[in-house]
Amino acid sequence: MKIDTPKLAMSLPKTRFEEIFYDEDHLLENCEITDAEFTDGIIERVKLDNVVIKRSKFTNTDFQRIDMTDVRFENCEMSNVNMTKGSIHRVEFLNSKLVGCQFPESSLGNVRFDNVQLELAGFGNSKLEKVIFNEVLLQNADFYDCKFKKIEFSKCNLNEASFEQTSLKGIDISSCEFETLQVSINELKGCKVFSYQAVQFASLLGLVIKD
């Protein structure tokens, strides 16, 4: 599936993340940030536009209502970051750790997660359109009552992920691995799986499979 990638300038001036505190709108734009560290803090309504962030640490930070357009994160530590009610468009998360990251009630469009740890992440009540999860660890991730449109799960670990109240119609998880999923039979209608996965689902639904 093709998605729109971040529209980033070929060359971006380097700046410090702390510059965000000097802008009354908490805006960072047209810049590159490297080796930043901002943990256990709170900044609501952060705005990032045309920004590349590398090797930075934002653990346990509250970024509620974050607004990101044309942003790339590379090799970042963002575990337990709160991005509730975020607007995230044309954004890439590459080779990063986002364990326990929270995206509930958010809008994600043209977003790519590539080689990312997203265990225990929460996407409840969010809208995801044109989102790619490639080689992502999604154990115990929560996709409760999400709206999916053009979503790709490629070679992901989905073990014990929850898709309750979320339709998987048209979603292909045949390249993914899992032992159990939290999902109902109605939500599975139209989901694309391999035959051995169908046997797993049958077992989850309480069916007894005979050889």
From TrEMBL:
<protein>
    <submittedName>
        <fullName>Uncharacterized protein YjbI with pentapeptide repeats</fullName>
    </submittedName>
</protein>
<dbReference type="InterPro" id="IPR001646">
    <property type="entry name" value="5peptide_repeat"/>
</dbReference>
<dbReference type="InterPro" id="IPR052949">
    <property type="entry name" value="PA_immunity-related"/>
</dbReference>
<dbReference type="Pfam" id="PF13599">
    <property type="entry name" value="Pentapeptide_4"/>
</dbReference>
